[in-house]
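Next comes this protein:
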Amino acid sequence: MKGERITYGELALYLGVTNQSVGEYLNEVYEAEIRLGDHDLTLLAHYSNSWFGKYNSHGLVHQSIGVDPDNLAEVKAYKNDLKDLFSHWGALPKGKLKKWLNS
């Protein structure tokens, strides 16, 4: 899946939990990555009908900053953070994701 993302539903299925339970796992991942000074891996998870996840907390407390897809500044920040994440791990976004990130 290098260069791709995962929906919350796919992640829940992989973890063997309900969709509503995914957040507690993502919060732990977020806290661990931020503590290490790394990029926010939770940006890889998103809603199946959207390019966006629910949060982009920019290194602050998990789930502290929501994402409003109608706010152009938040969209730009979200895309930039996602690009930085892929770049950090040496992955190139693919297909529609690449096109969206560059739009």
